[in-house]
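Justification of resources, computational component.

The compute hours requested in this renewal are based largely on the per-chain cost of generating structure records like the one below. Each record pairs the submitted sequence with a full structure-token output. That output is archived, and it is also reused by downstream analysis tasks.
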Amino acid sequence: MADGKKKVESITSMEEDFAQWYTDVVVKADLTGYTSVKGFMVLKPAGYAIWENIQSELDKRFKATGVENVYLPMMIPESLLEKEKDHVEGFAPEVAWVTHGGLTPLQERMCVRPTSETLFCDFYKKDIESYRDLPKVYNQWCSVVRWEKETRPFLRSREFLWQEGHTAHATAEEAEERTIQMLNVYATFCEEVLAIPVVKGQKTEKEKFAGAVATYTIEALMHDGKALQSGTSHNFGDGFAKAFGVQYTDKDNQLKYVHQTSWGMTTRLIGAIIMVHGDDNGLKLPPLVAPTQVMIVPIQQKKEGVLEKAEELRNLLSDVARVKVDATDKSPGFKFAECEMRGIPLRIEVGPRDIENNQCVVVRRDTGEKLTVSMDELKDKVAELLVTIQKDMLEAARAHRDSHTYTAKDWDEFKNIIENKPGFVKAMWCGDRACEDKIKEETGATTRCMPFEQEHIADTCVYCGREAKKMVYFGRAY
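The structure output for this chain reads:
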């Protein structure tokens, strides 16, 4: 994602240098490519296939809640962007501007969408007239551009892929219900599909989305103890509607403003998968999101019948898994290492002796366990193992998160944990922005969320000692 090329001979140990380990895995697993435009990445087939599986699974879950897909323009006139003051101030430093159409200067600058709230408001203003037109529950899959100063593949790039849901409702209650509903969709998706446990909660006023009444978030913990915001859902109330004049005639024949929501997930999730599940051998992909779930590696493949048997097994397994045969002329050892690097959940080894004994060796990527399985039982065993691996990866990630979640009752304890025990820190907070700012200034830790499931840790704020109002998850974050 920077200029030039980089070859990785071996992966840096994550314990030695986690940031370099992450970059090495991204490069060696061939997930992204470099471009001539600094901060912009190529999603190579191995990386894009993961996104396709994320997109497919999320899209099904959205549509089950009544969501419909649309597509809006990527250009936003400057005058439109500026209609919502807080919103434009929040995005101004990251906006990319278009000033010419061909050789002709534009009468008005256009920004390349950093997000599409203003476009949806402009669209809804024309599309909504009556209460009969509500609710509007739309989503779009697209890319956005934000001119980040420092970039890292998947975690922070100047252009990234995402989905952004935008809904309009007749009442505040309906909007809040949809906001929480979509957050729950995200949380169950992360746990069931990505095998990533999350904490659900509300962002503080400081951390909420620009222009929102409330922002809700799911927070995940990476292997190095840093937090990653993995999905957000925003309740806009009627603020955007008033700024853009989005009104409808209600049953009582009165003009009223709609209440809106917005919610999104991005290719950042691929970074989360890498950092939650990966190890020093590369990726570990949860089966439900793995582009290839099973790789069959023929041993002594030039011997008669070996490739034919590998292909026969591929056909056998094709209706229970996404399966491929590695028939390249690379050595078996190289193929094994490549399977591990790419995070393929199951590897099946089959050679002349295996064929003679009507069996093969099945290797789990998550644990390294090797199983000798009869070919007669292979199909059922593979289906069973993929379910087991998915479950075990979630349990392993949850155990890591829970063992790296700490409680601090006072400021000295808080500082000690942040400096010496990377992870989530649960602590009480008075609700004062000044304390929140001071905590970040002195420790680098930010408020990740005020969890829905509140706990009473102490009576007083961990920083100032005044009466506490909320228990908050704190942590250093990406």
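Residues 1-7 have pLDDT under 50 and may be disordered. The two ends are 17 Å apart (CA to CA).
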